[in-house]
Amino acid sequence: MNKFKKIQAYRIGPLLFFVDAFISLPILRRMKRRTTTSMTLEYHGDREQIEKDIRQGAFFMTNHRDICMDSAWLTYLLCFRYRTHPYIGIGNNLFGKWWIEHVVRILRAFVVIRDGNFREQIENAKLLSEYIHYQRKRGKSIWLAQREGRAKDGNDVTQPGVLKMLTIDSKNFLESIKELNICPVSISYEYDPCDYLKAREMQLKRDNPDWKKSREDDIESMSVGMKGRKGKVVYRLTTSINPEIDKAIAANPELLNMSKNEQIQFVCNLIDQHIHAAYEMYERGEKFDQYIEGQLAKINIPNKDEDFLREKLYEMYDNQVKNYEKAKGL
């Protein structure tokens, strides 16, 4: 539809898409071999129900490990197992290198526009929400991260602003959310190749609260995330949150009378519970300590605070364990 042209980065015909896929999928396979020891697509919950959700079209919402590869690998895995190719939301701040255009094409992307004045941001959010609901009504699958930007400290929590955007013009928040059929996906990396970049960013921000990432910083993170060592990678699909919303309403009808912000937080908590409980837990020991020291050595900034940086590197991995244990009631 012409009115969505502004946010449709993926505007090529079927033939060119096939050519891009023919070229790009073998590249993804080679990257998988070079950067991971294994990569699996697994299930947390009723596999039969999960596959039913996928067949009828799903809104895949994941934690955010890597700027580009989160969606690329999920697309790769879903394409081979289910012939499902979700539409992918990508921030316009990432468009800066020629090769990104090809990544965007194979990801079947739409653009999340993040700049502009307040009025423009509201209009862009409305357009994006309408586009996503339009695609879902057509039975198309969507991918979007649970937050804008990666969780620097590894504490993956859904941002309420994402759900507000998705339902910005809705009169009934819970019904609008159910129309999307949100199926959370948990992404686990044994090693996050961008961890030292995130730690570096945290010290720079600590030392200068006005410090901001440049577009070049985003491009560097994309490149390191694509090429860096990840170890064992696990994508774990979970069931739709819709039955849990219905069950909660049946148990407590007052949920329908709560404020929109309270309902949003309720849904955020549901998504987080799915993602955290489906994490893969990795063995940590002396080898991992050596890995942390190696990542620490890569950081080259003025007034390098090794104690702070080391603490932040460990924190990125420890927070995932804490969230997993909380979700599991351990």
Task: Name its key features.
330 residues, globular, 54% helix, Glycerol-3-phosphate (1)-acyltransferase, alpha/beta, 13 helices
Tell me about this structure.
- Strand 3, helix 4 and strand 4 form a beta-alpha-beta unit.
- Helix 11 packs across helix 13.
- The protein has helices at 14-35, 47-55, 69-82, 98-106, 118-137, 160-166, 173-180, 195-207, 215-227, 242-251, 260-277, 286-297, 306-328; strands spanning 36-44, 59-62, 87-91, 109-112, 142-145, 182-189, 231-238.
- 54% of the residues lie in helices and 13% in strands.
- The termini are far apart.
- With 330 residues, the protein is of the alpha/beta class.
What oligomeric arrangement do these chains adopt?
single chain
Strand order of the largest sheet: 1-7-6-2-5-3-4
Number of helices: 13
Whole-number average pLDDT? Answer: 88
User: What summary fits the major beta sheet?
Assistant: 7 strands, mixed
Portion in helices: 40-55%
CATH fold assignment: Glycerol-3-phosphate (1)-acyltransferase
CATH architecture: 3-Layer(aba) Sandwich
**How far apart, in Å, are the first and last alpha carbons?**
49 Å
Strand segment count: 7
Number of domains: 1
Shape descriptor reads globular
CATH class: Alpha Beta
Indicate the proportion of strand residues: 5-15%
Spans where pLDDT lies below 50 across 5 or more residues: 12-19
Short description:
Helix content is 54%, strand content 13%.
